[in-house]
Structure formats: structure tokens, C-alpha cells
């Protein structure tokens, strides 16, 4: 497994493998099985797989969240090696942003609802870092998890806006046995809290299985479930259109909707979503 820290080094390496298809998995480290599942998919579809580890300061709207973000590069490298990743790119902040970047992307509704509303500037920061990675690596395909479904939609919109030749591939949500969506942030929960946090996915499942109820009834049910734990603080629960991600008030005739939520569990912000087949 090759490890590079600078743009120059990795571009030099890639120029020696110019004929190969390149799969790219962007991560912020603190890797777990879900990240490795993205690497697995990339390995199946490409001759070379690159994983980046970069905690992008531009996508954190709270300084404290950035500071508390778990970091463990030696353990990450071990996991990537075992997972058969070909190349790891670990740039510094100055390597990624040698000059001041001031860009304001507009992704319409995607820039306004749910995560965008609760984390102002977050998706602009995500778009800035992904555009920069695409510029450096020029991957054939890039893999993003459906756990961050709105992010995936934003990146698809970004690729269109910048006319990127990179194909954006969505990958299924990887869960713990109890249903909790895997996340680097789960590291900050105790085992009791992780068990409690599994009620988020259980409540989402309930929503998917009770679509004969009204949207507002399901919303109330979900929020009531969350309020049963004192250490739970839900930020939002929405059922949204699969394509526009516009939250709905009443069921329509689309084939699919998606239930989205963000819940703080003991101060750790967790997000999850589940598809509702109409
Ligand atoms: P992160 O390191 O949290 O920025 O995540 C890196 C990539 O892994 C993103 O594309 C995430 O959507 C994806 N990812 C993280 N957790 C999961 C999960 N539980 N299932 C699927 N993809 C995930």
C-alpha cells in the first residue's frame, strides 16, 4: 500500500498509472467497516483504489465539533492495508488549500433543507473539498455512502455543475447488528449509549412499515420515541422526496420517499435515513 502526503507525490504516482481506472473513497479517518465496504466496492470496479484521510475544516460549522472529531491514523492505515486499499492520500490543510478558497456553491433546495439548514456552510465546505480532490486525483469513479444521503445528492449536483467526468457512486448504509448506522462519531458513545442510539434506526424502520399513517402522525411518533431518553435531543425528522429531498407534509404519488433524521445522543450528533417504498 502506497502512502502519499503531498499533491506532487500522488500526482507523480498517478501519472505512472495513467491508463488505469481509479476509484476514490474520501474519508475523514477514524475508519470503520462502513468505510472498508466503500473500498471493497471501489476495488471491484477499478484497477486502482485511493482512499483519502482528511478532516476538512471547511465543512465544520462548529469549532468544537472539529476539535472533537476522532483521529487515529495508525489504526486507519492498518485497516486500509488489511482491506487491500492500493493508495492512501493524507494531505495537510495547506496542501489542500494552498490559497484562500472563497466559493459559494448553490445547490438549490439541497442547500436549504435538513442538514443544510442545521449546519450552515457545511455542504459548501464539502463541495469545496470534493472539487479539490477531483482536481488533484481525477478519479474515474468516486464512492460515497448513502448514510450521508444529502451529501451524496450534493456531490452528484456538484459533479454536474463543474462538468466532472468522475462517476459518482452511492453505496448502501452499513449498520451495526442492532441497526445503528456505523459512524466515526459512534466512538464517542459508551456501549450503553450505542445500544440506546439503535432506537433511531428502529424508529425509522417503524416509519417505513407504517406508511398507511399520515406524515404528521409518523413525525410525532418518531419524536415521541426520541423523547423517551433524557440524553436524546432530536434536531429534525423529515420525510422527503427521493430526488429533490424536499420535505413533504402529505404523501404524494412518488415511488419512493426517504425518512431523514439528526439526533444528538449524549451530545454526539448522529444522522440516519431509510427509504420508504410507496
Ligand atoms: P466520513 O469519514 O464520515 O466523512 O465518511 C466517509 C465516507 O464513508 C462517506 O461517503 C460516508 O457517507 C461513508 N460512510 C460513513 N459511514 C457509513 C455507513 N454507516 N454506511 C455507508 N457509508 C458510510
Question: Can I get a quick summary?
Answer:
By secondary structure, this protein is an alpha/beta fold. The chain folds into two domains: 2-171, HUPs (Rossmann fold), CATH 3.40.50; 184-272, Pantoate-beta-alanine ligase, C-terminal domain (Pantoate--beta-alanine Ligase, Chain: A,domain 2), CATH 3.30.1300.10. The protein has helices spanning 7-15, 33-45, 63-68, 73-82, 93-96, 115-118, 122-137, 149-161, 191-209, 215-227, and strands at 2-4, 22-27, 48-53, 87-89, 141-145, 167-171, 232-241, 256-265, 268-277.
Written description of the protein model:
The structure is a single chain. With 278 residues, the protein is of the alpha/beta class. The strands form two sheets. The chain has a six-stranded parallel β-sheet, with helices on both faces. A three-stranded antiparallel β-sheet has the order 7-8-9, with helices on one face. α7 (122-137) packs across α8 and α9 runs antiparallel to α10. 38% of the residues lie in helices and 21% in strands. It folds into two domains: 2-171, HUPs (Rossmann fold), CATH 3.40.50.620; 184-272, Pantoate--beta-alanine Ligase, Chain: A,domain 2 (2-Layer Sandwich). The longest helix has 19 residues, at 191-209. Bound molecules: adenosine monophosphate (AMP). Residues 27-28, 34-35, 38, 144-145, 147-148, 171, 173-174, 181-184 line the site of adenosine monophosphate.
Amino acid at each position: 500500500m502506497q502512502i502519499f502526503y503531498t499533491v506532487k507525490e500522488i500526482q507523480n504516482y498517478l501519472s505512472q498509472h495513467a491508463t488505469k481506472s481509479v476509484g476514490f473513497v474520501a474519508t475523514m479517518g477514524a475508519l470503520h467497516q462502513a468505510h472498508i465496504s466503500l473500498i471493497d466496492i471501489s476495488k471491484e470496479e477499478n484497477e486502482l483504489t485511493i482512499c483519502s484521510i482528511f478532516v476538512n475544516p471547511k465543512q465544520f460549522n462548529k469549532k468544537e465539533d472539529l476539535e472533537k472529531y476522532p483521529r487515529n491514523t495508525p489504526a486507519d492505515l492498518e485497516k486500509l492495508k488489511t482491506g487491500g486499499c492500493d493508495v492512501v492520500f493524507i494531505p495537510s490543510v495547506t496542501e489542500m488549500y494552498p490559497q484562500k478558497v472563497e466559493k459559494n456553491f448553490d445547490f438549490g433546495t439541497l442547500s436549504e433543507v435538513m442538514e443544510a439548514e442545521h449546519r450552515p456552510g457545511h455542504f459548501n465546505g464539502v463541495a469545496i473539498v470534493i472539487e479539490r480532490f477531483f482536481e488533484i486525483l481525477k478519479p474515474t469513479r468516486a464512492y460515497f455512502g448513502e448514510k450521508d444521503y444529502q451529501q451524496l445528492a450534493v456531490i452528484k449536483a456538484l459533479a454536474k455543475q463543474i462538468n466532472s467526468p468522475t462517476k459518482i457512486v452511492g453505496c448502501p448504509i452499513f449498520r451495526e447488528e442492532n441497526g445503528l448506522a456505523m459512524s466515526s462519531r459512534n466512538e464517542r458513545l459508551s456501549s450503553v449509549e450505542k445500544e440506546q442510539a439503535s432506537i433511531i434506526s428502529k424508529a425509522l424502520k417503524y416509519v417505513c412499515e407504517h406508511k398507511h399513517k399520515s406524515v404528521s402522525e409518523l413525525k410525532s411518533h418518531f419524536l415521541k420515541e426520541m423523547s423517551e431518553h433524557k440524553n436524546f435531543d432530536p434536531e429534525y425528522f423529515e420525510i422527503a422526496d427521493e430526488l429533490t429531498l424536499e420535505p413533504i407534509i402529505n404523501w404524494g404519488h412518488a415511488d419512493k420517499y426517504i425518512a431523514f433524521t439528526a439526533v444528538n445522543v449524549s451530545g454526539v450528533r448522529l444522522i440516519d435515513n431509510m427509504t420508504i417504498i410507496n
